[in-house]
Amino acid sequence: MNRVAVVVLGDIGRSPRMQYHSMSLSKLENTKVTLIGYRESEPHPQIVNNDSITIEPLKPFPISMSNSFKKIPFISMLIWPILAICKVLFQIIQLMYVLLVKVPSPLNTILVQSPPAIPTIFVMQMVCWIRGVHLVIDWHNLGYTLLKLSLHKSDNHPIIRLAKFIERYFAKNAYAHLFVTNEMKIQLVRDWNLKGKTFVFHDKASPIFKSLTDREQEEFLKTFIKKYSIRGEDKVYIESAISKKSIRNPKQQTSIIISSTSWTQDEDFSILLDAIVKYDIEHVLKNNKKKEEKEEEEEEEILAENLLFIITGKGPQKEYYQEKINSLLLKKSRIITVWLDSEDYPKLLACCDLGVSLHNSSSGIDLPMKVVDMFGCCLPVLAIDFKCIQELVKVDYNGFLFKDSNQLHQLLNQLFTHPLATTTTTTINNNNLVLDKMRKNLSKDRETDTWETNWLTIKPLFVSSSSSKSKSKKE
User: Fold this and answer.
1) Which backbone phi and psi does 50 adopt, to 5 degrees?
2) Of residues 199 and 429, which shows the higher confidence score?
3) What single string gives the DSSP state of each residue in 274-330?
4) Quick check: 378 and 355 in contact, CB under 8 A?
5) Which phi and psi (to 5°) does residue 367 adopt?
6) What is the helix, strand, coil percentage profile of the chain, to 5?
7) What are the pLDDT digits (tens) for 369-390?
8) Longest Cα pair distance anywhere in the chain, in angstroms?
9) Within 10 A of 153 (CB to CB), how many other CB atoms are there?
10) Which of 90, 159, 204, 304 might form a disulfide with 451, Cβ 3.0–4.6 angstroms?
11) pTM of the prediction?
């Protein structure tokens, strides 16, 4: 029996990469997987209904760190360090109990997501030493950089320096390391002197992320309206998008643009909101000007599509941005915020015309998983530019990059305004020739560059441990 513990000190349902690892591990011969994490949202059905995967849910710390004493800053400043220490101790005890008591023997390998690095990497090293198993760290980002961002501290602050030391010291001797970018591998191997095996394992979309036919898109969008109680103007916009897929009316086009987020500080949604407002104002003013001046009929008419923005996700800054969204008076655009069931998210992506990523890496060396999922559904993406994003987004091949709201606004204009005289049946069917070309590129890549084919490169990490142990027992 080969058993692997997959650990994520976060919500399992919002940790797609670790869910995909669990699915792949469960397909190995004679292998059982124990998936450990918080069960705040429901994991994908392929996890829940898999006989080879057991979920061991963790209990959340009983006191909210974000809301406690929030209205009394002075008391919050005094209490927060005590609560932080108590939370870490609570997590250490719980992780030790689950991994030492509840996960049955034989346990061969622990695969842990980092960040969070504290206390996970320290605890995993202790468990691996006690149980004599291998530790594989799947590096998504650097924990200390996220802590620096959330606390608004510099690299030289004692707390940040301590966090960085703990992360580096206890990670160094892991059996193997997986990195989401080439840049991350280069930097950590060089600066942290990591031991063990190292693999660059770019995120790839699960098979559940795939394109849909126009008919399937129409059916899902109708279901989406009912299931998520979409009403009013939001419903009108979605029905217009459905109409575009079936009726093909060149004068009534609505495109759907999606962005998923955890509503954290490494995503500045004001960039998107500003770009939407600029798009809206520009084309509303142009329409009004045309009416006032009664332009001659022979002058070329420009079609500016209506844009429906759907923003999915949960997180600490959602209420802040929801208030800003509610205050906008938009006429050419609508914005919907919604939290989707895990099985609906891939389907909604496949119904959209474009994706937007505002992920701005705290470390500069990680990549947004949301873009990977969008690519899995053959959905082109506009992504904010940072150090290694071009490992994923290739300009004019599968998307475009922008640095600020002005550039994002220009891209929206470039993609969703067309001379009406040239808006033929062909361009309507393709929605947009540029986006259509990108979808074809993504579809071609999807056939060969899959999660399964890439996962084969790291498969030996999880099968050799059990075989080597069985050999040593025979000897």
Assistant:
1) -95, 120
2) 199
3) HHHHHHHHHHHHHHHHHHHHT--TTSPPEEE-EEEEEEE---TTHHHHHHHHHT---
4) no
5) -125, 150
6) 50, 20, 35
7) 899 999 999 999 999 999 899 9
8) 92
9) 15
10) 204
11) 0.79
